[in-house]
Amino acid sequence: MTVRSNLRLRFFVIKLALVVNPVASSVTARTRVVIQKALAADHELQIIETTRGNHATRLAHQLQREGVDVVIPFGGDGTVNEVANGLRGTSTAFAPLPGGSTNVFARAIGYPNDSVEATGVLLEALDSGSTVSASLGLANGRAFVFHVGVGFDAAVVERVERRGPLKRYAGHTWFVWSAIRTWSSAERRSLKFSVTNDDGRTVERAQMAVALNVNPYTFLGSQPLDLAPEAALDTPLSVVALESVGVAKLLPAALTAFQSDTGLPDRNGMAHWSEVTGATLTSDRPFPYQLDGEPQKPVTELRLEHVPNAVNVVVPA
């Protein structure tokens, strides 16, 4: 990962924009006041709230045209994703501030999960000009910052999002319960699609697949689930796929993700491909997928691509 120092020297003021998702799980009035005071102490700051889906993408694009140096999404991973899509291919950087229930991307690149603590780390990064040119993944043309989940994974996320308020108050307990309910449903048994790497490797009948731009796949509390530890902001994608999410495959995969430093193996009904620049998933009937934790409309074909040096990210110094 190549560190660039293109933000400023210490005596220059940086133009910041805090894009706030007011309904995100960890966004409160108190933390907003503390964060606003900290960011505005030495920098030029404007604050904008999102009001609807994909609003942050349009805001980020507008802020870039206005000459903002760093856009700071304060919300969950969905808000981070929208800002990254708005800034893709521009020189404006973004810095994720954790305000959601899990905050996978912010934590994966080294920010604390507490938003106030993360603000202090962000200010240190701004002072040192710590920004990197990072890769993104594409899923049918839309960028993702940490992963795309297909099949069983996406079905769980869709069930979680059906009752958004429970996610806010029950946290990871609701995710676990949703996974159990999805696993025991007829929907799980109907999931089947193929995964074909551009290099020719294929999984003919998968029930779950994940393409990762960074590791880990997610967190349960403070514990990361490491499906593909090699995935990073300066590498191509990693893709893992399970032929079955039955007990005999899913439980060993989960234990391996908790315990292994190499991720899931490439054997015994599991595929683990690194350095993936492109892959295609297909089925004769629509299958679910989620992008950075946000459910998408089911498709019969999903094209995955790696885009290097796609966006600038402020990382902890």
Describe how the helices and strands are arranged.
Blueprint: E1 3-4, E2 15-20, H1 29-40, E3 44-49, H2 55-65, E4 70-75, H3 77-87, E5 93-94, E6 97-98, H4 104-108, H5 115-128, E7 131-139, E8 142-144, E9 147-151, H6 152-162, H7 164-170, H8 172-183, H9 186-189, E10 193-197, E11 202-206, E12 208-212, E13 218-220, E14 223-225, E15 237-242, H10 247-259, E16 270-276, E17 278-287, E18 289-291, E19 294-295, E20 299-314
Parallel strand pairs: 2-3, 2-4, 4-5, 4-6, 5-20
Antiparallel strand pairs: 1-7, 7-8, 7-20, 9-12, 9-18, 10-11, 10-17, 12-15, 13-14, 15-16, 17-20, 18-19
Architecture overview:
- The structure is a single chain.
- The protein has 317 residues and is of the alpha+beta class.
- It folds into two domains: 3-129, Rossmann fold, CATH 3.40.50; 142-308, Tumour Suppressor Smad4.
- It has ten helices and 20 strands.
- Strand 2 (15-20), helix 1 and strand 3 (44-49) form a beta-alpha-beta unit.
- The chain is globular.
Features:
2 domains, Tumour Suppressor Smad4, globular, 317 residues, six-stranded antiparallel sheet, Rossmann fold, 10 helices, disordered N terminus
Brief digest:
The chain has 317 residues and is an alpha+beta fold.
How much of the sequence lies in strands comes to: 25-35%
**Overall mean pLDDT:** 90
Content-based structural category: alpha+beta
CATH architecture of the largest domain: Sandwich
SSE order, as H and E?
A: EEHEHEHEEHHEEEHHHHEEEEEEHEEEEE
Tell me the Rg in angstroms: 19 Å
What count of structural domains? 2
Helix content: 25-40%
Number of strands: 20
